[in-house]
């Protein structure tokens, strides 16, 4: 049996549920039903709902074999776990921010000052690396308020859109840590439970698929060579004969190929120019190499 700890609420909950679905491992019964455990379509794989901040410890101690949570929380806890895969969502920066009317311009200007944060370990390490001595004050929320009430001179806090800093009259002057959500595993479980790597591969296939699109088009036989030249360096394309229509003299081929999502705009325009018709761009759910 493999137990996977996932966030029970907050902004990581929905994207985590969706990556399980895309990976072909949908979770039955979410945390909204206030259950602590849930099943997946694999009878061997069970879900444990937990606070995102507690997941690193659960995985380290073996309460869960695998976990999904933010790298900031994993690093802050100093959890001894194996980071298997960057899942690339839940992106957030831990920034060093100061009141917008202050004279502090860089971390070095904070020598001997007070810095409030929910992430004291990451903050200590950040200033240590820079050789700057600060007094780190741990708070458990509403960090943005502390410089305005004399508790701190600066903060190290999560910023993603930057709105919270702006409305609290703070400005970011450096980035202390950049975080995304990771798939992590208990080190002992990783040695003994092979299926953990299958889970990693399934998630990896979802990430690969997000970067690609499936292209389908009809091509007159005379344009095939030119179309192939527009689709270089990719496996395929697959070419199939389309049943001839009484309206068309020329033989038509259906061409299918997998292409980089970033190149879609350029490729589709070029394909049209060399004679491709009825071009369809389709998302892909998973790519298993
Ligand atoms: N804008 C953001 N604010 C806070 N955390 C964020 C943000 N964007 C991504 N995250 C990541 O989400 C994780 C925190 O999730 P957590 O569930 O503890 O907080 P939350 O989504 O703010 O929920 P709540 O505070 O309501 O419990 C961290 O790893 C953090 O890096
Ligand atoms: O740059 P932004 O997009 O504004 O996001 C950053 C803010 O979001 C988080 O707070 P959250 O909404 O989770 O409230 P909390 O402090 O109660 O957890 C975080 O602690 C920041 O305050
Ligand atoms: Mg929060």
From TrEMBL:
What pathway annotation does it carry? Answer: Amino-acid biosynthesis; L-histidine biosynthesis; L-histidine from 5-phospho-alpha-D-ribose 1-diphosphate: step 1/9
Q: What is its EC number?
A: 2.4.2.17
Compartments it resides in: Cytoplasm
What residues does the ATP phosphoribosyltransferase catalytic domain cover? 51-203
Pfam families, sorted: HisG (PF01634), HisG_C (PF08029)
- Alphabetically list the UniProt keywords: Amino-acid biosynthesis, ATP-binding, Cytoplasm, Glycosyltransferase, Histidine biosynthesis, Magnesium, Metal-binding, Nucleotide-binding, Transferase
Q: PANTHER family annotated for this entry?
A: ATP PHOSPHORIBOSYLTRANSFERASE (PTHR21403:SF10), ATP PHOSPHORIBOSYLTRANSFERASE ATP-PRTASE (PTHR21403)
Designated name of the protein: ATP phosphoribosyltransferase
The organism of origin for this protein: Methanosarcina mazei
**Lineage of the native species?**
Archaea, Methanobacteriati, Methanobacteriota, Stenosarchaea group, Methanomicrobia
């Amino acid at each position: 049996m493999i137990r996977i700890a996932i966030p029970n609420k907050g902004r990581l909950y929905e994207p985590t549920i969706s990556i399980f679905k895309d990976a072909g491992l949908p979770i039955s019964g979410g945390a909204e039903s206030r259950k602590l455990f849930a099943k997946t379509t694999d009878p061997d794989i069970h879900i444990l709902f937990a606070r995102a901040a507690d997941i690193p410890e659960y995985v380290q101690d073996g309460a869960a074999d695998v976990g999904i949570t933010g790298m900031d929380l994993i690093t802050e806890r100093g959890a001894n776990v194996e980071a298997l895969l960057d899942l690339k969502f839940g992106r957030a920066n831990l920034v060093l921010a100061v009141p917008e009317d202050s004279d502090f311009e860089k971390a070095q200007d904070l020598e001997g000052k007070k810095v409030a944060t929910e992430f004291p370990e990451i903050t200590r390490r950040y200033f240590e690396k820079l050789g700057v001595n600060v007094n780190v004050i741990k708070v458990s929320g509403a960090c943005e308020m502390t410089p305005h009430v004399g508790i701190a001179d600066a903060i190290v806090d999560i910023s993603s859109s930057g709105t919270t800093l702006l409305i609290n009259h703070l400005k970011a002057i450096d980035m202390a840590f950049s975080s995304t959500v990771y798939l992590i595993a208990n080190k002992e479980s990783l040695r003994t439970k092979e299926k953990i790597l299958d889970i990693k591969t399934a998630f990896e296939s979802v990430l690969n698929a997000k970067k690609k699109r499936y292209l389908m088009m009809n091509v007159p036989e005379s344009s095939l060579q030119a179309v192939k030249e527009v689709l270089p360096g990719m496996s395929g394309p697959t070419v199939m004969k389309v049943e001839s229509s009484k309206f068309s003299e020329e033989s038509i081929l259906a061409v299918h190929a997998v292409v980089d999502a970033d190149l879609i705009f350029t490729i589709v325009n070029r394909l049209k120019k060399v004679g491709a018709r009825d071009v369809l761009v389709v998302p892909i759910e998973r790519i298993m190499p």
